[in-house]
Design a protein that fits this description.
Elements (H helix, E strand, L loop, with lengths): L4 E11 L5 E8 L3 H5 L5 H5 L4 H9 E4 L7 H5 L3 H14 L5 E6 L6 E6 L5
Antiparallel strand pairs: 1-2, 2-3, 4-5
């Protein structure tokens, strides 16, 4: 059975206007429309980095007791939480970056390095 929704917990959490903290939420799998329609949004056309805000506002279906997860809510996330949701989005939609073991040519130390997906 295909799982179309994934629960998550934000590392820091979203603080609403009343000062309430919201950490638990649900993200659904993205559709083609979720990635295509935001490209028509003037905010994205003027500032391409805004695309992730619009996309996440479409696919995050619940965040605590926030009544409507919209771009303003996503804008209000702490940077760590935004990065967490971006990684989750990439992972559940099959876009996750992969890691490869690399060796430093100078000292010979090995570490994992992230490699962006092809075409990304």
């Amino acid at each position: 059975m295909l799982t179309t929704e994934v629960e998550f917990e934000l590392p820091k959490g979203y603080v609403d206007a009343a000062g309430d903290l919201h950490r638990h939420g649900v993200m659904r799998l993205a559709t083609a429309a979720d990635e295509i329609y935001p490209l028509k949004d003037p905010r994205v056309r003027n500032w391409p980095a805004y695309l992730i805000v619009i996309v996440l506002a479409r696919v995050v279906t619940r965040l605590g007791t926030v009544p409507d997860v919209n771009p303003k809510v996503i804008e209000g996330l702490f940077s760590e939480d935004l990065a967490h949701l971006q990684r989750l989005y990439n992972r559940i939609n099959g876009l996750a970056e992969s890691e490869v073991l690399v060796r430093c040519p100078g000292c010979g130390a090995e570490h994992l390095a992230e490699v962006a997906p092809l075409g990304g």
